[in-house]
Amino acid sequence: MRKSLRNLGSLLLVCSLVGMSLTGCSQKAEEKTASDTASEAVAENKEFSYPMKTDKTLTYWIPLNVNVSANYGNLGETDFYKNLHEQSGIAVEYKHPALGQEKEQFNLMLLDEELPDIVEWEWFGYEGGPQKAIDDGVIIPLNDVFDKYCPNIKAYLKDHPDVDKMIRTDNGDYYCFPFIRGGDLLLTSMGPMLRGDWLDELGLEVPKTVDEWETVLTAFKEKKGATGAFAYWYSVPDLTNNNPFACAYGARRTFYLKDGKIVYGAIEDSYKNYLQKMSEWMKAGLLDPDLATLTNDQVAAKITSGAAGASFAWGGSGMGNWTKAGKETNPDFRLVGAPYPTLEAGQKPEMGQRDNFYPGGLGCAAITTSCKDVEVAARLLDYGYSEAGHVLFNFGKEGVSYEMKDGKYTYTDLLLNNPNMSITHSMAGHVRANYNGPFVQDEEYILQYFSLDEQKEALKLWSDTNMKKYTIPPITPNAEESKEIARIMTEVNTYRDECTLKFILGTMDMSEWDNYVSTIKSMGIDKVLEMENAALERYNAR
Amino acid sequence: MKKKNSNSFSIFNLFNICILSILALLCIYPIWYVLTASLSNGNLIMQHSGLLLLPIKPNIAAYIAVFKNKMILSGYLNTIKILIISLILQITMTSIGAYFFSRERVLFKKPLMFIITLTMFISGGMIPFYQNLRSLHLMNSHWGLILPFMISTYNMIILKTSFESIPKSLSEAARIDGAGHIRILFSIVLPLSKPVLAVMLLYYGVGVWNGWFWASTILTDRSMYPLQVILREILLSNDTSVMTQGVSSGDLEAVGATIRYATVIVATLPILCAYPFLQKYFTKGIMIGAVKE
Amino acid sequence: MKNTIFSKIKKDLKLNKSLYILVLPVLIFYIIFHYKPMYGAVIAFMDYNPRLGIKGSEWVGFAQFIRFFNSPYFVRILRNTVLLSVYGIIFGFPAPIILALLLNELKQKKFKKTVQTATYLTHFISLVVVTGIIKEFTQSTGLINDIIEFFGGTRTSLIQNPALYRTIYITSDIWQEIGWGSIIYLAALSGIDEQLYEAASIDGANRWDKLLHVTLPGISTTIIIMLILRLGQILGSSYEKTILLYNEATYETADVIASYIYRVGILERNWSYSTAIGLFNSGINFIFLLVANKLSKKISETSLW
Q1: Using a CB-CB distance cutoff of 8 angstroms, which residues of chain B are in contact with residue C39?
Q2: Is the ipTM above a cut-off of 0.90?
Q3: For an engineered disulfide with A181, which of A186, A308, B67, C44 has Cβ 3.0 to 4.6 Å away?
Q4: In Å, how far are A491, B87, C36, C81 from B144, measured between CA atoms?
Q5: Spatial distance between the Cα atoms of A212 and A230, rounded to a whole number of angstroms
Q6: Cα radius of gyration rounded to whole Å, chain C
Q7: CA B277 – CA A527 distance, rounded (Å)
Q8: CB atoms near residue A155 (< 10 Å)
Q9: Model's pTM, two decimal places?
Q10: How far is Cα B196 from Cα C186, in angstroms, rounded to an integer?
């Protein structure tokens, strides 16, 4: 029994390998006659219309978003799915990993011979790169599939060649139905914020430079009794990687583009200057002394109770929720956004938080090698990029979750003013716009999700940076490179995180800096940079 | 002489009572903290720091929210089902094993004991274990959480040690009377080991009740989740340092603090209540009475 | 010679036939759920790729072990793991025994029950909650700092101080497990023959004498078995508690083998590497177990097998 299973497994593997090389060949052939296939595809698609007539039920593995799991045990229970089912005609059985165990369970799932039909994951982050996922026989390349069954995503990619470039591997293979941010305002979701009512009371302006921030934070500490004037959720990589004060110094904790080359921010001199400043602030009591261990709750508590006066967080779950909570005990409570700080007055901020249009994170759906009805799966996933699908994923169902007002899709009170739950939670039952998925996110979502004027204002301030210059496109190192990079970076990142915090806390003196840099170099950072840059060159050559 | 003795007794007793009282308070406080927090106003509890002795603006909103969650109820039923089947199998299998290894003059006892003890320290690791469950068709089934955990070697050794302390004369007498091993085990050895069996029930029971890792790993159908997996999900929504660091987070909102605390209480209370029922077996007397006969 | 061994086996099988049949399900359990998956440990000597399986993956010999020994963190995590275990044995191991003995001396039945129930409560609280409470109490605004300030000290973040990490870890371990750990000793204490105490009283023994000559010998087997088992876990550490409790500032004293395996092995999908570290762990643990068992056999005539 056991042996036969294993033989079956290797047989499948061989099949998928053969299949892959075949598609590889056929794809090259197609490129030559792209116009032919395109017209063929159009001809074929004319006959097709949603809802699709099929009695197949697809299995669909997807990490359940926290905002959904707060009220639903399965994505299939949400109104979103009920509408999707009705409109697309395709039934889906969702499988979810346990929350907090996603990565472990994704890894274990790959051990199965029989995978779900569709797996939604951060395929860009697959160990060894997306090409490896195809080579491993986990997912299928989608070039053929796009041509045959997916007119909607094809149309989108045709209009957006930059995105088209991002969602392929070096070989030119498409590997997923991506989550795409459909506008500049959606690329930035977090930024610095502080107590507007305190600023007014103290007669201070919203700070723009690091020096002004220092004045404001000192005033918060001395005049308003904030024990740690600046507090944020340090343990979240997204937040700490984009720390606004690091941005002011032109420093980054991770890799970034500098003059067209990839560099490792944490060993640059700018990072040293930033750490120097932070350790001064820590000593002066301007930063929360418990920085490293703060949880979401605690940051919220500190901000709303006045133990902290400024933070760095998301516009929705941070500014929105905290303002609501703060107003309950103090009607004057008000948070305002500040632009990403600079060193000199009058400059435009260079760095800030900014995603690529294809963020490369969760929400990218791939079809696995186990899928027997590729067409059905493709039709389901392509629906998100159609006009009707766009509305469904972003706004839900007319009359229930949205209404048309002045030609605009407008969320109803069911979502925005639900007395039983927060906006984030109520939205998650009807749309996928407030997390991710295989569709193009609509800018209108964020403008309405941010119900406070302060939030909309802040979003504009936060978006106004030159970060685009520094953002690395979704490059795909090959399998060998990825493995080596992962091996080295695990060690490097551990060391960087440890030293960064020690520099800030002052337990490690700044005179140790050179030592720190040479240790990271000895761990092999130069080798990593070499490989990253090679991958970048291949990307640019696409 | 006598007087002095009793004097030192009372001083010792006083000291003893003091120490134990302090310890008890230290241990009760966190539960008390969780309980009062779950009954408090959500916003105010977040802003509170320091000692919490009474609920702030008491209300039961959090509990209403918890019981509205369908997953909690199904989690309860799943846990109870797994618990009952597990305990029956665990106690039976562990007793049989411990009985075997507590017998004397058994030739293969030592090598077998060695082989079994070895498994406490060497294992194939997570992948083979997982693949083994798959080849046995135990995936996405509660049996996959029951069968592989029927015997804890650690518990079996404890039980074996206890069986060995039962006077040999008792079982020898029974053998002479023609009793088989099963009868000796069930009518002599087990009744004499009630205290340690109560310990076993607690050890196994708590293990099953608090187990989450394999449940979250082999169950793909969320309606089959036991309570602890659901509890953990709710708790971790506040702490991303554990929440799979690589997975990009985006705009997340944690479940409210009071709801988290209320879930802890709901998920912990039943197993807390089981203890006093087992506790009475820990008192002296049962065993000695039997030995005297 | 051969004949005698053969006949010995034959005689034994005949004598204990029913016993062997009885134990069969237990042996089958161990074969299916422990020995069958054990072959998987060979991936420690491979560069294992799940899609290729054990047959298809490349053999790399001891490369995974060498990678571990050459890791910049090898010495540090080994030291941290061992120190935590040793402190755990010195401070954590005797605690439940002392509690059991103190409880045993109590005359007030109701109070005894109350203390017992109170101390075991902590064991049932989920680690996520426990570590959350620890972090809250040790932060600069926490309860412990309230006390420090009351006695004239200054507030600092204790949980970010690497020098205090082990103290916090061990203390909270004792606090959480002392009641639960004492259960096994209380059960053993309840098995001591009351007549022995009566006899000792008649001989004029005081409380201390009884403790030394009746109580402790009565539970010594249990203590020794527990100690041997504990020594067999010298490199065992809880990955869950560690990753919930540590932060970047305390890595230097907090990072242990288990948390390293979790970070490098499970999250980064280095199956072979993590299995190799696991094997190394098991090996060292097993050596400790063997030595402890042997020593105990010599000194006290108590042993696991």
Answers
A1: 124, 128
A2: no
A3: A186
A4: 36, 15, 16, 32
A5: 14
A6: 25
A7: 64
A8: 12
A9: 0.81
A10: 10
